[in-house]
């Protein structure tokens, strides 16, 4: 390819002796130059022609490449991934991707990679000819992130194009999930129950006040009178004591 050229891509799809132009989504490199394209096809039988137009200040060239779909097909990532931790073992299942060039869905024609990541390690396991996998060395108290990708195996077709990675599946510790569920259940059921109990207490208090009204207290004036000690108090009799004092005159005795 020319170094200082600008490129554009056209995809020609030949079926039943007819050519059709197909949309090809291009992608570029760091220098913003077209380095490839991606398009979906509906059949594995037709031939595909890739036309690359290269243009510059003083030149224009056309490159045409012919491909068969089975040689360049990039399959979709594994779907419907289900994972669980049971008795210290990681169990994973997924659906086999649909591939145009493999019509009999032979599991031997597929190869997968499993990427397992926890807070300390990253493991990559290669899986052949099956859509399930068990890993026994698992710490049930850790959180794991896993994803899968696949490609066609060399047993059926020579194709080394890996699919994109699947969406990430998160596996959390079982005890934490149970605790969270218990806390959520207590919050959802506990708060309304407490509010209902408080409402019933106030309601019952109002009913009791209507059924058994309180005894009225005495009037303040009468109460003050009753509290005084002088209400039934009589004056004690007063006695006047008269004392007569006799004084003798001593002057007359002296005269005698």
TrEMBL record:
<dbReference type="InterPro" id="IPR013783">
    <property type="entry name" value="Ig-like_fold"/>
</dbReference>
<keyword id="KW-1133">Transmembrane helix</keyword>
<keyword id="KW-0675">Receptor</keyword>
<dbReference type="InterPro" id="IPR003961">
    <property type="entry name" value="FN3_dom"/>
</dbReference>
<feature type="transmembrane region" description="Helical">
    <location>
        <begin position="182"/>
        <end position="202"/>
    </location>
</feature>
<dbReference type="GO" id="GO:0016020">
    <property type="term" value="C:membrane"/>
</dbReference>
<keyword id="KW-0732">Signal</keyword>
<protein>
    <submittedName>
        <fullName>Interleukin-5 receptor subunit alpha-like</fullName>
    </submittedName>
</protein>
<keyword id="KW-0812">Transmembrane</keyword>
<feature type="domain" description="Fibronectin type-III">
    <location>
        <begin position="77"/>
        <end position="174"/>
    </location>
</feature>
<keyword id="KW-0472">Membrane</keyword>
<keyword id="KW-0325">Glycoprotein</keyword>
<dbReference type="InterPro" id="IPR036116">
    <property type="entry name" value="FN3_sf"/>
</dbReference>
């Amino acid at each position: 390819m020319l170094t200082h050229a600008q490129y554009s891509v056209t995809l020609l799809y030949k079926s039943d002796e007819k050519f059709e132009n197909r949309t090809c989504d291009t992608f570029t490199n760091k220098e913003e130059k077209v380095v490839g394209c991606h398009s979906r096809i509906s059949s594995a039988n037709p031939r595909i022609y890739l036309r690359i137009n290269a243009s510059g200040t003083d030149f224009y060239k056309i490159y045409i490449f012919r491909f068969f779909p089975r040689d360049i097909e990039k399959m979709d990532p594994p779907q419907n991934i289900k994972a669980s931790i049971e008795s210290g073992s990681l169990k994973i299942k997924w659906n086999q991707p649909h591939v145009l060039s493999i019509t009999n869905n032979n599991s031997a024609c597929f190869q997968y990679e499993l990427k397992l990541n926890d807070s300390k390690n990253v493991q990559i396991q290669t899986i052949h000819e099956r859509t399930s996998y068990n890993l026994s060395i698992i710490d049930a108290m850790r959180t794991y992130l896993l994803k899968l990708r696949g490609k066609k195996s060399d047993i059926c077709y020579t194709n080394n194009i890996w699919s994109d990675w699947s969406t990430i599946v998160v596996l959390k510790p079982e005890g934490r999930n149970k605790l969270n569920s218990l806390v959520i259940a207590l919050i959802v059921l506990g708060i309304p129950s407490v509010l209902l109990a408080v409402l019933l207490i106030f309601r019952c208090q109002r009913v009791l006040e209507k059924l058994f009204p309180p005894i009225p207290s005495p009037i303040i004036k009468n109460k003050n009178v009753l509290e005084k000690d002088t209400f039934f108090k009589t004056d004690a009799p007063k006695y006047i004591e008269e004392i007569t004092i006799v004084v003798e005159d001593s002057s007359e005795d002296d005269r005698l």
